[in-house]
Amino acid sequence: MTTNNIAYLRRRRNITQKRLADMIGIPASTLNRIETGETEGFEKYRTLLAKALGCKPEALDAPELDMPSTPITGFVKYKTFIKEIPEKQRETVDAVPGLPDTIEALKIKTSDLVPYHGANDLLYFDGVPQKNERLFLDRECVITLDTKKRGERLLAWVSKGSREGHYILHPQGGTLMVDAKILAAHPILHIKRA
Questions:
Q1: Which residues contact 148 (CB under 8 A, 6 or more apart)?
Q2: Percentage of the chain lying above the pLDDT 90 cut
Q3: Measured distance CA(190)–CA(49) in Å, rounded
């Protein structure tokens, strides 16, 4: 029996069966038969499917897939506060070409951030904090606060504060935090809309 990775690749990219069928110009019922193996072969659609799924044509039926992935290390469920996901419970999502190997992702699980972010948006950021202030000022970042609960993180825009090591944080949908001391800033490098 031949391996068929089409449904797996489609789900990893968060594409519905109907949407993929529309993208390649075939009825959803035909795509369903291809994915379930009811239709022998899919050579006729291989190039279109690969292009729509953003993969090499041979990945559609490769016995083993080596997909570059990024761990989802936390999620935003209330306002802009980030809840860490324990390492053993982390899911992965497709890696974004051109981003560093140390990239991590956050998943938005709230509608509190509309119109900035919708539920299920993925925000990619470098797991290594940015030390050069010019590269995180006036940008949306994952911030690690210097609080009694060391390591508390939130999603916010960062502006210069009144003294060294302090910054004005502008959380979307939250209150303005003036002159907060932060331990680390990780600029958002890529946003994948749900």
A1: none
A2: 49
A3: 25
